[in-house]
Amino acid sequence: MQNLEAFRELINTPKKIVITTHFKPDADALGSALGLAGYLRKKGHHITVITPSDYPKFLFWMPNNEEVINYEDYKLRGKSNKLIAEADIIFCLDFSALSRIEAMADPVKQSDAIKVMIDHHTFPEDFAQFSYHDTKAAATAQLIFQLIVLLGDESLLDVAICECLYAGIMTDTGSFRHPSTTPAVHRIVADIMEIGVNTNLIHRRIYDSTTAERLNFLGYVLSEKLVILPEYRVAYFTVTEEELKRFNSQTGDTEGIVNYGLQIEGVVMSVIIVDRPEAVKMSFRSVEEFAVNQIASKYFSGGGHKNASGGKTSGIGLEATVEKFIGILPEYQAELLAVPI
């Protein structure tokens, strides 16, 4: 971390702190926020976690989840804005551009609070006084764990904190399958297990707590909405707004579906394209050296990691988005066909 000693001094006396994440936080974003909150509370700070939106129910088990404020809750919007305006420090976790917090961006930008950005995504904006940014890190939760160790506060790590951090590391590594799973990641997980975290239980809470409706939705998407383009080694899924309503889709229900495309022999890139009320949202996944973040940033107003990125289109609809996606594939055909798998 840059200016580690100055940061240590900053958090050595009690402060009013707000912690936030990117819009639609996943396990890494929320786990990092709640894990950091648990640590900072032990140092005497007053902590509020405010997320820009809701998040999946399969994350509700995390310790102190009940204290999280959803900025989209208009009944609490005034309280949220007051907390942001009066904060001494605002931690920005698992994102590196203020646009990623949507409606919260202006209040956070206008706050006089010291901003601290901790993230592992590419192309960070220069909005924070302190930053701990490493694109080689497997997860933001990994960076939170490392920062606590760097500060010499390993003794403050407990089961509740480490449950949250483990959830972030486990999910962002694809259950330790992605290339970002380094020896350092396994050593951190070993430390977490020695602290007493039941890693099997966390895996079940996240991956084995679905609903019958979600399983029916998954089955429908896999059987009816999968398109394979062997000439490009690409698979993609589309989901309409009507289909989301038909299956009573909830936040998080489309999460992970894109990964099924990569289970198909020969497929290098998988994409899911979902028609949401606010925009057409896209998730990209790839294997080996094929970088989907370049496609996401160049054509779909997005970005992320080399093998896992997101994007969107606005104002053109689902059908036109699919046409645009298929239209750019010839540009990447040679690269896709060259990937050894």
From TrEMBL:
Q: Which InterPro entries match?
A: DDH_dom, DHH_sf, DHHA1_dom, Oligoribo/pAp-PDE_c-di-AMP_PDE
Listed GO MF terms: 3'(2'),5'-bisphosphate nucleotidase activity; nucleic acid binding
Q: Domain DHHA1, which positions?
A: 239-320
Q: Which Gene3D superfamilies match?
A: 3.10.310.30, inorganic pyrophosphatase (n-terminal core)
Task: Supply the enzyme class, top level.
Answer: hydrolase
SUPFAM superfamilies reported for this sequence: DHH phosphoesterases
| Residue ranges constituting the DDH domain according to the UniProt record | 16-169
Name of the protein this chain belongs to: Phosphoesterase RecJ-like protein
Lineage of the organism: Bacteria, Pseudomonadati, Bacteroidota, Cytophagia, Cytophagales
